[in-house]
Amino acid sequence: MTAGPDANVPDMNTQVRAFWEQGPCGTNIGIVGDAEPLSREWFETVEQNRYTLEPMIHGAAQFTRHRGKKLLEIGVGAGTDHLQWARAGCECHGVDLTDAAIETTKARLALYGLTSSLQRLDAETLPFDEDSFDLVWSWGVIHHAEHPERIVAEIRRVLKSGGEFRGMFYKRWSLAVFKEWIKHALLRGKPFRSFADVLAHHFESPGTKAYTLQEMRTMFRAFDSVEVSPAMTPYDLQHLPGFLKGWLPDSFGSFIVIHAIK
Ligand SMILES: C[S@@+](CC[C@H](N)C(=O)[O-])C[C@H]1O[C@@H](n2cnc3c(N)ncnc32)[C@H](O)[C@@H]1O
89 pLDDT exceeds 60? Predict the structure, then answer.
């Protein structure tokens, strides 16, 4: 029998995993310099860089308002937010597609004497009972999965009635994506290449997606309420003339911050 054309191509989430196993995001050498990996200095550099670039995380998460709640984080990455949830007194559970993220987050919590139940898995299927969690947090993760809508359905399933989802997805019509489109489509003589195609091939792991605000509301339509707000980021403003930066509205930004209640 002849093999099909894709017989040797790993499935999308295997490719996504291979990408993020190279290192949790926000831990590359340009950020951590020569700090000893997994040392306190290394983690604190990662943390400082993260909240300098993405200060809106604090408003989106509201870490200290959730003391005592049972929290699930999907896509813990280097564990920076997970540490804040643990510090805030949540009962923490975290998952990620990679060993790199789970081992980094374990080391990070141990360094500060905190604990969490951490598992490496694909969040398209969650091993938790329905109505288990008060809060699910996921920042910049679900748009990397092959089937984001499956993760959103799993989030709703494992949340208690009245439980909340807080997180962030990428926004398609944004300066950050437009700049990648100029580089990979327009300047290569392919002006008909879509933003979605550029995102899938040139934006972090393979298959990355991004949404409109309306698409986001639709994805969360089974929740009782959903609020979506665009956010401007340094990734959108990078390389733009300084005088423009204060004037560009959040609607040109590449993040959609979301708060949904089951
Ligand atoms: C851009 S990083 C974000 C990590 C962290 N939330 C942060 O903001 O730094 C994306 C993370 O999502 C994880 N991820 C991607 N697809 C996933 C999936 N299907 N299930 C669980 N985790 C996934 C990756 O392994 C990676 O750690």
Answer: yes
User: What CATH number is given to the structural domain containing 19?
Assistant: 3.40.50.150
Domain count, the chain: 1
Averaged confidence pLDDT in the chain: 95
Residue 4 has pLDDT above 60, yes or no: no
Domain that holds residue 130: 12-236+247-261
Is 174 within a domain?
yes
Predicted confidence at residue 49, as pLDDT, reads 97
Residue 102 in contact with ligand 1 by CB distance below 6 A: no
Q: Tell me how far the alpha carbon of residue 122 lies from the centroid of ligand 1, in angstroms.
A: 10
Ligand 1: distance of its center to the CA of 4 in Å? 30
The residue whose CB lies within 8 Å of the most ligand 1 atoms, and thus the one to mutate among 144, 152, 168, 205, is: 144
**Pocket-testing residue among 50, 96, 208, ligand 1, by greatest number of atoms within 8 A of Cβ:** 96
Summarised one tens digit per residue, pLDDT across range 146-156 is 999 999 999 99
Q: Which atom of ligand 1 is nearest to the CA of 73?
A: 6
> What are the DSSP calls for the chain, one per residue?
-PPPTTTTSPPHHHHHHHHHHT--TT-SHHHHTTPPTTSHHHHHHHHHHHHHH-THHHHHH-GGGGTT-EEEEE--TTSHHHHHHHHTT-EEEEEES-HHHHHHHHHHHHHTT---EEEE--TTS--S-TT-EEEEEEES-GGGSS-HHHHHHHHHHHEEEEEEEEEEEEBSSSHHHHHHHHHHTGGGT-TT--HHHHHHHHSSSTT---B-HHHHHHHTTTSSEEEEEEE--HHHHTTS-HHHHTTS-GGGSSEEEEEEE-
Ligand 1 pocket residue status of 145, Cβ below 6 Å: yes
Give pLDDT tens digits for 10-59.
899 999 999 999 999 999 999 999 999 999 999 999 999 999 999 999 99
